[in-house]
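Working notes for the structural subgroup meeting. M.R. asked for a predicted model of this chain before we commit to crystallization trials. I am recording the input and output together here so anyone reviewing the notebook later can reproduce the run.

Input as submitted:
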Amino acid sequence: MHDRPPSANLSDTERLNRLRLIRSDNVGPRTFYALLRHCGDAATALERLPELARRGGASRSGRICGADDARAELEACRRLGVSLVAPDEAHYPPRLAMIDDAPPLLAVRGALDALVRPMIAIVGSRNASGAGLKFAQVLAHDLADAGFVIISGLARGIDQAAHRASLAAGTIAVLAGGQDRIYPPEHEDLLFSLLETGAAITEMPLGHVARAHDFPRRNRLIAGASLGVVVVEAAQRSGSLITARMANEQGREVFAVPGSPIDPRAAGTNDLIKQGATLVTDAADIVNAVQPIMARPVALEESGDDYSEAEPAADERARIVALLGPSPILLDDLIRMSSASPAIVRTALLELELAGRLERHGGGMVSLI
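Returned structure, recorded in token form:
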């Protein structure tokens, strides 16, 4: 599942280089881990970025984050009380580290011990009904009493109700922007209150103002860090349904609270139940479902792929590129049709991505831009 080496405790130099790498153009989490596998460490990956992008067809290399910019970000984080932690380091949520596109460096602040406790996500409509808000509060309070940390997105409506009801026990806010750019602004007081017993996390740099496409990225962190996601209210085209879909893709439990069939705010949750989500009427429904999962240890899987010597020959690269197009294709199908080894195909995709020519989709699918 994971194309990443164990990080252990990073040296200051390695943390700086990893920050430079993930802040460079065309380097997302999956590309970051592939680069570490291919190059061995972040410093070597930074040196090889222009060459790999050229092999992927780029006329010129994208911007590579400079050391001075990375040092400035680290210093700004230190002043705000923010730590940048890698998977396998202390205070990185253990279940979040299991997903394929876990943030290589997660910005965290607050009572960081809350980040390693078992989490349940509660999400739902921003325009929630009074009944929905009340149920979210009761559910969050009861789950907190049962020893769970509530994780949500600090949004209006259901999110904020769940956070406020679990403040005393510790709650986790996942931010769509930087740690210094809170959205919505009226929830700054809520954020500062929850930092006393809980924490805030984000993959975004300081100064980043949340935009529309940042919220699905945030939602994958909410789902990934949790044992399961509870959707309290959601209309048919709600962002909460994106969180539920991502939870399902990540192998997390999906729970839904039923609502009136004539209330559009319940249409999404009722559909989730039809699709197999666990119906929830009280906290016990959730606790009983996740207890067997909690009994299993959480550990990163080691990748068996060796990228270090997987350099595609010109004909192999051409064959792989020819099989790609604007329609997404499964990675497994691409490997089979190209008759190349998995390591060769992944390296060719890495080169294309660094050249800005590849788009990755959910479910292990890729397409050519």
